[in-house]
Amino acid sequence: MTLSISLHLLASAPHAGKHHPRLLPTLGTEGVIQLHRQLVARVLNLPPLGFSERIFWIEDGPDELLEALAEDNDWMVVGQPVGDLGERMRRIAALGLSENDAVVLIGQHCPMLDADYLSAACEALDQHQAVLGPTEDGRYALLGLRRVDPRLFESMPWGSDQVLARTCERLQELEWPHGLLPRLWVLDDPEHLPRLGRLGIKLGTG
């Protein structure tokens, strides 16, 4: 990397009934908790890739297993700031940019978000002020920024299929050149579970 880039994982500790509600009938409460922990652990196990720092922003923690894994892999573990999702992302991005040329914010819900995808995001930030990792459902799983503006996060319909389009509109209004990475799928429906097997991810294994 030519830029100093910090990586920020925003994820929550696994809690019964809170995550992946559409998967509950198929996997049950314990299965969903185990899957959630697997998805977070998969990100924490990614190689460091030359990021200047990697911070795991955990919500609804603590979680001893995930926090120990993060520390073993040289992630800093911090509780998420207060506010809605947009305000938390804005504050985290601003903090990362205070000491780095760029930041990359990610979640854990896209199993195809891997080291190559992160490397592509970093390369895109060499050419753009922002980069987005779109998802099939109209949201995004990755946001890379070289600067921050509250308009990227305010009055955004988080969780809807309009998030990506609205964010791109805001970037155009700001006149920030931005890049789009290949589209990813989000694991939130039973019909997505066979895709995990095709990626070599087995339910119930670490």
What does this protein structure show overall?
This protein is α/β, with parallel strands linked by helices and 206 residues long. It has a single domain, classed as Spore Coat Polysaccharide Biosynthesis Protein SpsA, Chain A, CATH 3.90.550.10. It is built from 6 helices and 7 strands; from the N terminus they run E-H-E-H-E-H-E-H-E-E-H-E-H. Helix 2 links the parallel strand 2 and strand 3. The radius of gyration is 16 Å and the shape is globular.
What's a quick, concise take on this entry?
The protein contains six helices and seven strands; from the N terminus they run βαβαβαβαββαβα.
Q: Note the run of SSEs as H and E.
A: EHEHEHEHEEHEH
Mean pLDDT, rounded to whole units?
A: 92
Percent of residues in helices? 25-40%
CATH architecture assignment: Alpha-Beta Complex
Q: Which class in CATH terms?
A: Alpha Beta
The CATH topology is Spore Coat Polysaccharide Biosynthesis Protein SpsA, Chain A
What is the 3D shape?
Answer: globular
How many structurally independent domains? 1
Strand order of the largest sheet: 3-2-1-4-6-5-7
How many extended strands? 7
DSSP strand content: 15-25%
Fourth-tier CATH superfamily name = Spore Coat Polysaccharide Biosynthesis Protein SpsA, Chain A
Rg result: 16 Å
Tell me about the largest β-sheet: 7 strands, mixed
Oligomer: single chain
Give the class from helix and strand content and strand pairing.
Answer: alpha/beta
Work out the helix count.
Answer: 6
